[in-house]
Write a structure and sequence with these properties.
Elements: E1 3-4, H1 21-33, E2 38-43, H2 50-64, E3 68-73, H3 78-91, H4 100-113, E4 123-127, E5 144-148, H5 158-168, E6 173-176, E7 190-193, H6 210-219, E8 228-232, H7 241-252, E9 259-264, H8 273-284, E10 290-294, H9 301-310, E11 313-316, H10 325-332, E12 337-340, H11 345-348, E13 355-358, H12 361-373, H13 375-392, H14 395-416, H15 426-433
Parallel strand pairs: 2-3, 2-4, 4-5, 5-6, 6-7, 8-9, 8-11, 9-10, 11-12, 12-13
Antiparallel strand pairs: 1-3
Helix pairs in contact: 1-14, 3-4, 6-9, 7-12, 10-13, 14-15
The protein binds uridine-5'-diphosphate.
Length: 438
């Protein structure tokens, strides 16, 4: 059996006054047309990282909208997750190959998991490379299969890409965050570009009273009488935590009491994180102004919220990034962000809005120093960032985009099989048939 993730109840009504009204109204209309559709989301972990963050909000809201949504996690052992981590890195361009044994292990995992997906769903959305091979192994083909790729696959390592490509041929559609992430010679015909989004009502993103937020950070040892910059990220080489420390040290030459917090959750499917954690500890352990926190010492969503709310500047010095939910999370709290000019980050921080994009340790240090010395500029950038997130990167917008894609797929299916179970309104059919895809 695959593990079903337990999720609470959510109500779309609670988003009135938070997300734009027109998005909510449109979402209700589209969901009405898909009422009763059975949707399964499949990924590799129920906590840690952006995908689980999105599914925790998206699945209960789909249920509230009248769809039968479920979320399942594939099973895998350490050896499997070591391989999928290299697959993930290779898809983002890292060198290396998988041995024949490793390839067999990856496929073997899909063979173990696939039989548990045989029940009838209208749509199965498979997230990222870990479970990607499953689609081709499920014989029950009444579902429409969607591969949702959250990572930057614009320049994949050719050997890794060649290995994964045949498994993708079984999908009806793919979803990427950016057009430029579609790899060369992509085998899936229908592709939609849908940037991810944050849930403004999750414990991580709802507005914390200032006093409570202060109390939370003071409680874990942060001194709020001193300036604070923070990066919230898994320990991952693409998030460049050592680059963050280097930039911070340059800034501290000018602002000696500046504190740095590195906040990281250790995900189940991320074996490399411990190596990087050790490196960061070795680099920072004697420095009492650098705080390193993980979920393992109890730093969770509410603490992350407090860091994102009260830091003077949030850093996201990524070298590769699918989207970078942490950027929108910080901007939503009105906190300016200094971030790597990579992947999905620039669409969250366009020129003059939200923060400053950087390409090196030195630029990162300069931008931090600038914002720390000009608090009014920092506040203005933070405020414009919050409005940008409200318009483009809140969960209702993502749900709307996703449901439009599902509807387009259902229409396509209905056209090829007139007795299909989903009944869609004619008007929607003609509008959507040309809407999504390339
Ligand atoms: N996150 C967290 N605690 C941490 C580190 C990260 O809750 O210590 C969350 C973070 O708030 C965000 C997600 O994990 O919601 C990371 O998503 P992002 O898209 O930034 O990066 P990914 O980890 O998916 O590459």
């Amino acid at each position: 059996m695959l593990d079903v993730v337990d999720i609470g109840d959510r109500s779309l009504d609670a988003y009135r006054g938070v997300a734009p009204d027109e998005q909510l109204d449109e979402l209700v209309r589209v969901a009405q047309r898909l009422r009763g559709a059975r949707i399964l989301h499949v990924n590799a972990t129920s906590y840690g990282g952006g995908v689980s963050e999105i599914l925790r909000a998206c699945v209960p809201l789909l249920r509230d909208l009248g769809l039968e949504a479920e979320w399942k996690i594939i099973r895998g052992d350490d050896a499997f997750f070591q391989i999928t981590k290299r697959l993930h890195n290779g898809l983002q361009g890292a060198p290396g190959e998988l041995s024949e044994t490793e390839k067999a292990l990856y496929l073997g995992n899909a063979q173990l998991n696939a039989p548990h997906l045989a029940e009838g769903y209208d749509f199965v959305v498979v997230h990222d490379p870990q479970p990607a091979a499953i689609a081709g192994l499920v014989h029950h083909r009444s579902s429409r299969w969607i591969w949702r790729c959250h990572i930057d696959t614009s320049h994949p390592n050719p050997a890794i890409w060649e290995f994964l490509t045949p498994y993708l041929g079984a999908y009806d559609a793919a979803v990427f965050t950016l057009e430029s992430f579609i790899p060369p010679r992509f085998p899936i015909r229908r592709v939609a570009i849908l940037p991810p989004a944050i849930d403004p009502l999750s414990p991580k993103n709802l507005t914390l009273p200032k006093e409570l937020a202060r109390h939370i950070l003071e409680w874990i040892g942060v001194r709020l009488s001193r300036p604070l910059v923070t990066q919230v990220s898994r320990f991952d080489k693409w998030k460049d935590p050592l680059g963050v420390v280097a930039a911070y040290r340059l800034v501290r030459q000018h602002i000696p009491h500046l504190q740095l917090a590195l906040v990281s959750s250790m995900a189940l499917d991320d074996p490399e994180a411990w190596d990087i954690y050790e490196k960061v500890r070795a680099e920072t352990t004697d420095d009492h102004l650098i705080h390193v926190f993980t979920n393992l010492v109890g730093v969770g969503n509410v603490e992350v919220n407090a860091f994102q709310s009260l830091s003077d500047v949030i850093i996201q010095k990524s070298l590769r990034e699918g989207f970078g939910l942490v950027v929108s999370e910080a901007l939503w709290k009105g906190t300016p962000v200094v971030a790597g000019r990579v992947g999905g980050i620039p669409m969250q921080i366009p020129p003059g809005i939200g923060g400053i994009l950087v390409d090196s340790v030195e630029e990162c240090a300069d931008a931090l120093l600038h914002l720390l010395r000009h608090p009014q500029t920092a506040r203005t950038l933070g405020a414009s960032g919050r409005e940008r997130v409200r318009q483009h990167f809140l969960m209702p917008r993502l749900l709307l985009d996703e449901l439009l894609l599902l509807e387009a797929l259902a229409v396509e299916r209905a056209a090829s099989a007139p007795t299909a179970s989903l009944q869609l309104e004619n008007e929607a059919e003609s509008r959507l048939a040309g809407d999504v895809g390339h």
